[in-house]
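Q: What residues go here?
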């Protein structure tokens, strides 16, 4: 497929979550395989995939300089993964709180990740997140987990971008267990 593309063809690489993390990796691979293509990347809710050395491959004078963009929900901890873990500390103030367990996990994660020097690639657009009206449960840690899931879902990103909603809701959809 790549070999059949005409010189200068536009190729857009985008992904959400793990796909957002891998967007720069795939864009870089494509730019090395076909340097004659017009490659542009958009990562949604992705963590940075590499350290300062990897990020330098996208710097000034490189083929993908100013060609990769990141979009993160201001209330989605995933987009802050690896390089800015502790920013999630008070995401949901005043509610729901993850408590000491979440704070401890974030602190330990930040310390463990520090030596790797993860570095974000490309400019970031932070989309102003909105908390759900009320927590779906009263248990703090579960409410925190559900809110985190809600903030990370593709449907939430589409809403924040002003795009039409998906034809289904991943959180409120009924779960059907057939044959069990």
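A:
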């Amino acid at each position: 497929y790549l070999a059949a593309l005409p010189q200068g063809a536009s190729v857009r690489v985008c992904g959400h979550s793990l796909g957002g993390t891998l967007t720069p990796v795939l864009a870089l691979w494509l730019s090395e395989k076909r340097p004659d293509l017009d490659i542009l990347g958009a990562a949604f809710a992705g963590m940075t995939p590499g350290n300062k050395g990897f990020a330098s491959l996208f710097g000034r004078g490189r083929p993908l300089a100013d060609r990769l963009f990141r979009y993160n929900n201001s209330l989605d901890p995933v987009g802050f993964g690896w390089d800015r873990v502790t920013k999630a500390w008070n995401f949901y103030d005043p509610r729901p709180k993850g408590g000491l367990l979440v704070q401890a996990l974030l602190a330990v994660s930040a310390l463990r990740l520090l030596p790797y020097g993860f570095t974000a690639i490309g400019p970031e657009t932070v989309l102003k997140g909105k908390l759900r009206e009320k927590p779906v449960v009263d248990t703090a840690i579960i409410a925190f987990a559900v809110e985190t899931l809600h903030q990370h879902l593709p449907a939430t990103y589409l809403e924040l971008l002003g795009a039409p909603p998906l034809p289904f809701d991943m959180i409120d959809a009924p779960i059907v267990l057939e044959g069990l």
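A: Context that may help when evaluating the design: Residues 90 and 97 are 8 Å apart (CA to CA). Helices lie at 18-33, 52-56, 99-113, 140-152, 154-161.
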